[in-house]
């Protein structure tokens, strides 16, 4: 019986597996080292820990960093671009931005060098009319030339192809005729949206990733099938939804933020279930602190991101804001006598001084070690036997204590105080940029280090409570199991709202709907329900920044009913009012793009199956006591084994809860409660 | 004065920077106008209660505002002292560039922040409005000879008295703009940002106490000074001179020199602009506050880690003669200030490069090329396509210069060709890197760009406000100069260049006729002979430079490189 589903998140250091038996509701987690360069070893090893017969698996969902890493490390394929005469440099010219505001240093090397960007005679105008039909012989010659130069994939991007795909589609057909592989990416298929640089970059990066990601996923799937797996293999997209592996091989650019997106999806589900629909997540890793905001259970989506300078991917993705304040961020005193944290980081290798792997400059983790908040004899992750407290103290002394005239402990506290202040700042700024008051949100730390900083986030941001999931270290793997299936479509409309062709709009929605539903059907996955979400990107004429306007659509037997001009206008006014608090009197409304998301809602599992089942007392889980420095003083602090604390337990601070993948610090003025799902909810003690 | 411990200082430094960042975010989110909302042509900060000096400024605003805002605050401090009318809840508004710097499009709001009945500091907001009147929509009039031909000039007046909005002031402003809704939207966005700043300051002072925060401000100023002195000390002592030229003033085609002598003595730096041209008739004059702020921009590009705090300037002495191009007084026009400050940055870089080339980059392209093409729709409505165009950045000790970047004073992105083509009756026939435009060198300059635009309407007119048509952006440390700015327009009898280099007003174009703008690259860094042959061969294979030019600059060794 295929009753089990597995979520697998392959990270830089560990491969996390979350296996759910849908028949029994039982969930299990496993953590194994990531294998390199071929990640499929760790992938199969991790599943094998919890599933002996791959035939029992109905679904395997994968959150992958293969695409992200190929982009960051520039390890994609050699590819070429075929484009409109006069526009071969679009990719390299970007939007005229630069790396940093200050300094004017650094150049930019696009993923496709100039000699592999070829122009062909053709031209479509902004209104969709064809000024110059495409010269197919020139297209064929260009494709042949790219093949001769050893290109493994090809991107085709014509100017204004969003308005009329005719020329580009003809060229794509001609190239696919002669191209020896599937790896031909067309801009009108990947992103039929106005703005040539963003479309070119997204299409080119898709082509750049295609051979690599398709090869990797193909190897994984073959290995799964060879092991007896007969179910569906799904991949998490940057938008937090999953797609079939075939779709992922065609659209690998949509996996750019696959892993982190799954984590945010899980965070949203865990928090909503526990009664916190509004949360801000904080994922503290080795080099960074990643913040996401979930309002009413829905993560906010960003329309695009830049993977690295100039490498723009425009496809809806979970919005994640990153600041350089992770556990490995280095603390240093500048020439003006000010204590700074980061942006330089020791990462996980060599890592903090306490790891004893060669770094001698103090990090945030070193401060936690020196203050006793991390147990030097039981480092999380299981890679090291013990941590070197003395070396950490010495480094803090030398680089922070002496320059500032502080003793070791004060210096360590100072490091945490400044790091906490920066993390709190990121949370406030993310909230304000999205128009929310952070006080109305709960905080959810995940990743290895976040739960040590919970108290500081509560006091600095003014948040009332924090919720720490039962398995914060495998949130992304759990998210794989929870995520819905989602297909996003976009089409630029570019018309005034009161004169837009609403029949055409209905046709576009219908086309998106049919294509999306087909992808859901073909995936062979069970759904509880299917939703079609339609949004228009709209603005007043003269404005270039748009607001997302949700459009209610009616689907009858003949497909989608066209919205009226009035309905569109009213929907815009409501969305604009919600965003800006006022309307522009007499302003003319314009529709720029139409976006459709076709969502297959997957059955959710009951999180209470994760809850501890043991009765008994908290004392049974008390492992030891240890001196921990918090609030300016040493406290004899009880250390609990977190996973065996029964539901309903209330632990007053100061206390530390330990589990294999994280350490939770409950500060003296706080208390932690184990809720019915096994989460720990941290709040202030009643005064 | 309270002592402050180093931990609190580090935390407060971050908290106050955050307040300015949150003010930025508040305006960007709520502004109607894309120049603010998308290009972030705005800035916010905290300023000294007595001197108006910059204490803290947001990180997201435009570089040129770091430094110039202090003058806006000082103008208000002086005005309030003169009128003796400052009360809690007052906010001043003005755009007068001669006292507040930059140009008339930048609307400044300044509000004293009071604590226990005393002014603790000032909060200020500046944003580039869409239109503030005058003869040219968008206020970029290349032929202006007085501010009155540029825009409405508003001196510091009270926008709010005791927290109450002065509707008569608002009415005057709105009656003087073509874009009333946009202006009202930006105005409320800026007031929202100041309100937020007040709330955040209240919370900060409640938490830490006014004395502690004041002590932190003093300490941060001292720290900025220490940092700047430390950077300057690492420069060798000496005096280095540099000169460059403006093509013309937009009225007569005469080159205007910009000269600087950079002198270092220990931890003190002097920038002396004696020898710079006197004031001119056209709009490339700049006011003294703009010039001083520009020096700050140049210094911060050379030493990027220096904070946005006036303490930096205590060790820097700036000498600008009266009645020169860089100290123009009312009512001389200043609308083209961007071109002049770019040249100031170039000469400061050229002088500093003689002292310590490793800290400096070659000159960037040095002109924003404000090009407008305008016409009338069949229904008689006027259309104006107005944009700035990019160019190359200079090479540095680290790398080649960036191809197609934004100007050093800005971080604004360029609109996509597809957006422009969908909004205006034009076709971009070419939007490309300009071959051979970067200066040669061990690290070559970045390439400029070529934009060729064809008119699709029956008729249109073209306007250009550019520079660098006669004098190329310079390389440093032996690096070569970049290509100059080139502009051509098509008429019935063929292609022409503007009579006045890089500037023209209202040239008529017919359907099918084109204009072609070729922007400068950046200057090179280091001797071309030190560029590895493999990199030269790559440049040739990518078309960044042609084979003959490569032979001339680098010798023929690259021809032996196996590709």
From TrEMBL, chain A:
<dbReference type="GO" id="GO:0006749">
    <property type="term" value="P:glutathione metabolic process"/>
</dbReference>
<dbReference type="InterPro" id="IPR049517">
    <property type="entry name" value="ACX-like_C"/>
</dbReference>
<dbReference type="InterPro" id="IPR002821">
    <property type="entry name" value="Hydantoinase_A"/>
</dbReference>
<dbReference type="GO" id="GO:0005829">
    <property type="term" value="C:cytosol"/>
</dbReference>
<protein>
    <submittedName>
        <fullName>Hydantoin utilization protein A</fullName>
    </submittedName>
</protein>
<dbReference type="Pfam" id="PF05378">
    <property type="entry name" value="Hydant_A_N"/>
</dbReference>
<feature type="domain" description="Acetophenone carboxylase-like C-terminal">
    <location>
        <begin position="515"/>
        <end position="677"/>
    </location>
</feature>
<dbReference type="Pfam" id="PF01968">
    <property type="entry name" value="Hydantoinase_A"/>
</dbReference>
<dbReference type="InterPro" id="IPR008040">
    <property type="entry name" value="Hydant_A_N"/>
</dbReference>
<feature type="domain" description="Hydantoinase A/oxoprolinase">
    <location>
        <begin position="199"/>
        <end position="488"/>
    </location>
</feature>
<dbReference type="GO" id="GO:0017168">
    <property type="term" value="F:5-oxoprolinase (ATP-hydrolyzing) activity"/>
</dbReference>
<dbReference type="InterPro" id="IPR045079">
    <property type="entry name" value="Oxoprolinase-like"/>
</dbReference>
<dbReference type="Pfam" id="PF19278">
    <property type="entry name" value="Hydant_A_C"/>
</dbReference>
<feature type="domain" description="Hydantoinase/oxoprolinase N-terminal">
    <location>
        <begin position="7"/>
        <end position="177"/>
    </location>
</feature>
UniProtKB/TrEMBL annotation, chain B:
<dbReference type="InterPro" id="IPR003692">
    <property type="entry name" value="Hydantoinase_B"/>
</dbReference>
<feature type="domain" description="Hydantoinase B/oxoprolinase">
    <location>
        <begin position="5"/>
        <end position="528"/>
    </location>
</feature>
<dbReference type="GO" id="GO:0017168">
    <property type="term" value="F:5-oxoprolinase (ATP-hydrolyzing) activity"/>
</dbReference>
<dbReference type="Pfam" id="PF02538">
    <property type="entry name" value="Hydantoinase_B"/>
</dbReference>
<dbReference type="InterPro" id="IPR045079">
    <property type="entry name" value="Oxoprolinase-like"/>
</dbReference>
<protein>
    <submittedName>
        <fullName>Hydantoin utilization protein B</fullName>
    </submittedName>
</protein>
<dbReference type="GO" id="GO:0006749">
    <property type="term" value="P:glutathione metabolic process"/>
</dbReference>
<dbReference type="GO" id="GO:0005829">
    <property type="term" value="C:cytosol"/>
</dbReference>
């Amino acid at each position: 019986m295929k009753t089990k589903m597995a979520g697998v998140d392959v990270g830089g250091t560990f491969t996390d597996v979350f296996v759910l038996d849908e028949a029994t509701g039982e969930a299990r987690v496993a953590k194994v080292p990531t294998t390199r360069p071929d990640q499929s070893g760790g992938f199969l090893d991790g599943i094998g820990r919890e599933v002996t017969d791959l035939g029992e698996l109905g679904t395997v969902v994968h959150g992958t960093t293969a695409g992200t890493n190929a982009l960051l490390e520039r390890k994609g394929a050699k590819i070429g671009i075929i484009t409109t005469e006069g526009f071969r440099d679009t990719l390299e010219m970007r939007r005229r931005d630069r790396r940093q505001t200050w300094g004017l240093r650094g150049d930019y090397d696009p993923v496709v060098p100039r000699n592999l960007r070829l122009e062909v005679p053709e031209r479509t105008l902004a209104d969709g009319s064809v000024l110059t039909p495409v010269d197919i012989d020139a297209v064929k010659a260009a494709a042949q030339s790219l093949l001769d130069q050893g290109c493994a994939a090809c991107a085709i991007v014509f100017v204004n192809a969003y308005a009329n795909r005719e020329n580009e589609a003809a060229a794509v057909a001609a190239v696919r005729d002669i191209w020896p592989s599937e790896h031909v990416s067309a801009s009108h298929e990947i992103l039929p949206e106005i703005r040539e640089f963003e479309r070119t970059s997204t299409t080119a990066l898709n082509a750049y990733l295609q051979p690599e990601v398709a090869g990797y996923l193909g190897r994984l799937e073959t290995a799964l099938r060879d092991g007896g797996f007969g179910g569906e293999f799904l991949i998490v997209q940057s938008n937090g939804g999953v797609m079939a592996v075939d779709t992922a091989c065609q659209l690998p650019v949509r996996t750019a933020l696959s892993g982190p997106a799954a984590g945010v999806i899980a965070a949203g589900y865990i928090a909503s279930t526990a009664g916190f629909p509004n949360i801000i997540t904080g994922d503290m890793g080795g080099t960074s602190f990643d913040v996401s905001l979930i309002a009413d259970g829905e993560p906010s989506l960003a329309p695009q991101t830049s993977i690295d300078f100039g490498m723009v991917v425009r496809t809806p993705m979970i919005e994640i804001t990153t600041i350089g304040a992770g556990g490995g961020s280095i603390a240093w005193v500048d020439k003006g006598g000010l204590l700074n944290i980061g942006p330089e980081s020791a990462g996980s290798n060599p890592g903090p001084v306490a790891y004893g792997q060669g770094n001698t400059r103090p990090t945030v983790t070193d401060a936690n070690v020196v203050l006793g908040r991390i147990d030097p004899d039981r480092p999380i992750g299981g890679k090291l036997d013990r941590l070197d407290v003395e070396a950490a103290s010495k480094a803090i002394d030398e680089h922070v204590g002496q320059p500032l005239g502080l003793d070791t402990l004060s210096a360590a506290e100072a490091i945490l105080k400044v790091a906490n202040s920066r993390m709190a700042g990121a949370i406030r700024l993310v909230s304000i940029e999205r128009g929310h008051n952070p006080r109305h949100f709960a905080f959810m730390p995940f990743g290895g280090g976040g739960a040590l900083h919970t108290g500081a986030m509560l006091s600095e941001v003014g948040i009332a409570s924090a919720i720490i999931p039962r398995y914060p270290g495998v949130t992304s793997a759990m998210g794989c199991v929870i995520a819905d299936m989602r297909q996003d479509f976009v089409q630029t409309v570019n018309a005034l709202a009161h004169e837009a062709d609403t029949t055409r709009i209905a046709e576009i929605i219908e086309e998106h709907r049919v294509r999306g539903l087909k992808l859901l059907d073909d995936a062979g996955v069970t759904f509880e329900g299917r939703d079609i979400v339609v949004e228009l990107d709209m603005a007043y004429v003269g404005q270039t920044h748009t607001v997302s306007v949700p459009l209610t659509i009616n689907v009858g037997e003949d497909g989608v009913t066209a919205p009226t001009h009035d309905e569109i206008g009213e929907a815009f006014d409501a969305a604009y009012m919600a965003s800006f608090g006022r309307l522009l009197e007499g302003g003319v409304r314009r529709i720029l793009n139409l976006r459709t998301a076709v969502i297959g809602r997957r059955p959710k599992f009951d999180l209470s199956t994760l809850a501890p089942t043991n009765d008994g007392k908290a004392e049974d889980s008390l492992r030891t006591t240890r001196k921990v420095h918090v609030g300016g003083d040493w406290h004899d602090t009880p250390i609990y084994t977190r996973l065996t604390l029964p539901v309903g337990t209330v632990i007053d601070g100061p206390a530390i809860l330990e589990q294999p993948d994280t350490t939770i610090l409950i500060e003296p003025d706080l208390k932690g409660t184990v809720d019915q799902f096994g989460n720990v909810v941290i709040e202030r003690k009643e005064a | 004065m309270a002592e402050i411990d180093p931990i609190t200082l580090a935390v407060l430094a971050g908290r106050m920077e955050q307040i300015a960042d949150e003010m930025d975010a508040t305006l960007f989110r709520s502004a109607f106008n894309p120049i603010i909302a998308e290009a972030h042509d705005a800035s916010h900060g905290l300023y000294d209660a007595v001197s108006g000096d910059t204490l803290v400024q947001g990180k997201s605003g435009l570089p040129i505002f770091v430094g110039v805002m202090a003058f806006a605050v000082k103008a208000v401090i002086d005005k309030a002292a003169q009128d003796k009318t400052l009360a809690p809840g007052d906010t001043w508004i003005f755009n007068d560039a001669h006292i507040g710097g930059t140009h008339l499009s930048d609307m400044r709001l300044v509000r004293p922040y009071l604590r226990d009945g005393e002014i603790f500091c000032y909060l200020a907001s500046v944003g580039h409005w869409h239109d503030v009147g005058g003869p040219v929509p968008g206020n970029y009039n290349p032929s202006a000879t007085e501010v009155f031909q540029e825009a409405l000039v508003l001196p510091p007046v009270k926008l709010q008295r005791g927290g109450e909005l002065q509707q008569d002031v608002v009415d005057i402003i709105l009656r003087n703009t073509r874009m009333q809704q946009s202006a009202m939207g930006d105005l409320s966005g800026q007031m929202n940002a100041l309100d937020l700043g007040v709330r955040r300051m209240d919370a900060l002072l409640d938490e830490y106490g006014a004395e502690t925060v004041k002590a932190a401000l003093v300490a941060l100023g001292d720290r900025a000074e220490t940092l700047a002195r430390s950077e300057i000390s690492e420069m060798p002592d000496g005096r280095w001179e540099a000169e460059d030229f403006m093509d013309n003033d937009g009225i007569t085609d005469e080159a205007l020199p910009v000269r600087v002598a950079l002198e270092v003595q220990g931890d003190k730096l002097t920038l002396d602009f004696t020898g710079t041209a006197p004031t001119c008739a056209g709009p490339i004059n700049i006011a003294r506050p703009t010039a001083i702020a520009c020096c700050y921009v140049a210094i911060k590009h050379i030493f990027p880690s220096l904070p946005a705090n006036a303490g930096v300037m205590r060790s820097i002495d700036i000498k600008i003669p009266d009645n020169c191009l860089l100290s123009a007084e009312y009512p001389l026009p200043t609308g083209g200030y961007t071109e002049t400050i770019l040249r100031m940055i170039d000469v400061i870089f050229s002088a500093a490069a003689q002292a310590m080339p490793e800290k400096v980059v070659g000159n960037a392209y040095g002109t924003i090329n404000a090009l407008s093409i305008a016409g009338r729709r069949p229904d008689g409505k006027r259309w104006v396509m107005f944009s700035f165009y990019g160019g190359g950045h200079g090479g540095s000790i680290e790398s080649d210069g960036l191809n197609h970047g934004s100007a050093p004073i800005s971080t604004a992105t360029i609109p996509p060709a597809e957006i422009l083509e969908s909004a205006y009756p034009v076709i971009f026939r070419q939007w490309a890197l300009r071959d051979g435009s970067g200066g040669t060198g061990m690290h070559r300059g970045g390439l400029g760009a070529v934009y060729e635009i064809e008119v699709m309407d029956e008729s249109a007119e073209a306007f250009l406000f550019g520079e660098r048509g006669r004098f190329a952006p310079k390389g440093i440390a032996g690096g070569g100069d970049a290509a100059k700015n080139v502009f051509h327009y098509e008429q019935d009898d063929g292609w022409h260049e503007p009579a006045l280099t890089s500037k023209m007003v209202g040239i008529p174009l017919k359907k099918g006729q084109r204009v072609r703008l070729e922007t400068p690259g950046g200057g090179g860094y280091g001797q071309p002979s030190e560029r590895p042959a493999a990199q030269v061969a790559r440049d040739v294979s990518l078309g960044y430079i042609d084979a003959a030019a490569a032979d001339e600059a680098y010798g023929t060794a690259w021809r032996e490189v196996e590709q």
